[in-house]
Amino acid sequence: MKRTVLDELLQARAAKRAMALVTDLATGAQTIVYPDAATSLSDDIKAAVGRAIQDDRSGTLDAPEGRLFIQVFTPPVRLILVGAVHIAQALAPMAALAGYAVSVVDPRRAFASDARFPDLDLSTEWPDEAMARLKPDSRTAVVTLTHDPKLDDPALAAALASDAFYIGALGSRKTHAARLGRLKEAGATDAQIARIHGPVGLAIGAASPAEIAVSIMAQITQARRGRAEAAS
Fold first, then answer.
1. Which domains can be identified in the chain, with CATH numbers?
2. Which residue pairs from 205-210 have beta carbons closer than 8 angstroms and sit at least 24 positions apart in sequence?
3. Which of 206, 202, 205 has the alpha carbon at shortest distance from 228?
4. What percentage of the chain reaches a pLDDT higher than 70?
5. Rounded to the nearest 5°, which phi and psi values hold at 2?
6. Which of 63, 201, 183 is nearest to 143 (CA)?
7. Do the strands 140-144 and 196-197 form a parallel or antiparallel pair, or are they unpaired?
8. What is the DSSP pairing of strand 66-73 with strand 19-24?
9. pTM of whole model > 0.85?
10. Mean pLDDT, range 171-178, rounded to an integer
11. CA 12, CA 26: separation in Å to the nearest integer?
12. What would the DSSP string read from start to end of the chain?
């Protein structure tokens, strides 16, 4: 590997930028490819690289140009949970097992305790402060769980202003309708509002906190993998 390629890889990783290193296995020539960035590679190869980055999956590719190895480098996917409630207690370890770096945000110290959320990034900041620090990006999912507008609404507003790939909010249809009304009054557009999954989670008849957590994690996975067409 050339030093210039290594330096660029290190810089991109430090900037938490998703990318792939494409190596021609016959010649050893290497090209760094970023999502949605111009490249000298063919459209078919770029599309294959894009799918590999989306799926976080390295592998070989037989192309007209020859056999290639696509090595994917992506920053960790993240899940920000607003509300240290029972559903969060089930969802946080579930998401961690799925490879997410989980942050739980709740200024209510009686809920946000190390005993309830061991070995997690736990914040007792107000959600607007926490979101400003965490800076959700295109590899971040945000879920609000408190039912409290003072906590959920600022977090949702910050998520809508970000590139978060998934935004979900717990609550009944009536609660969600009122929430959308408040967000619109605060300046959110219809296009932004449409990004919120509410009521959160796939409709699987979930009732218990653990079942609701399963439905939320499934919907996050569906959104991340771009498989919305599989919904029923």
1. 3-73 (no CATH), 78-230 (3.40.50.720)
2. 209/85, 209/86, 209/87, 209/89, 209/90, 210/90
3. 202
4. 97
5. -70, 150
6. 201
7. unpaired
8. antiparallel
9. no
10. 92
11. 26
12. --HHHHHHHHHHHHTT--EEEEEETTT--EEEE-TT---SS-HHHHHHHHHHHHHT--EEEEETTEEEEEEEE-PPPEEEEE--SHHHHHHHHHHHHTT-EEEEE-S-TTTS-TTTSTTSEEE-S-HHHHHHHH---TTEEEEE-S--HHHHHHHHHHHHTTT-SEEEE-S-HHHHHHHHHHHHHTT--HHHHTTEESS-S--S---SHHHHHHHHHHHHHHHHHT-GGG--
| Number of other residues whose CB lies within 10 A of the CB of residue 22 | 23
Calpha distance 11→17 (Å, rounded): 9
Please give the structure tokens belonging to residue 28. Answer: 């050893």
Asked if residue 199 has a cis previous peptide bond (ω within 30° of 0), the answer is: yes
Q: Rounded CA gap, 195 and 149, in Å?
A: 18
Residue showing tokens 């609660």: 175
Mean pLDDT of 17-25: 90
Return the amino acid letter for 78.
R
- The pLDDT tens digits for 68-96 are 999 999 888 999 999 999 999 999 999 99
Confidence of residue 228 (pLDDT cuts 50, 70, 90): very low
Phi, psi of 144 (to 5 degrees): -100, 140
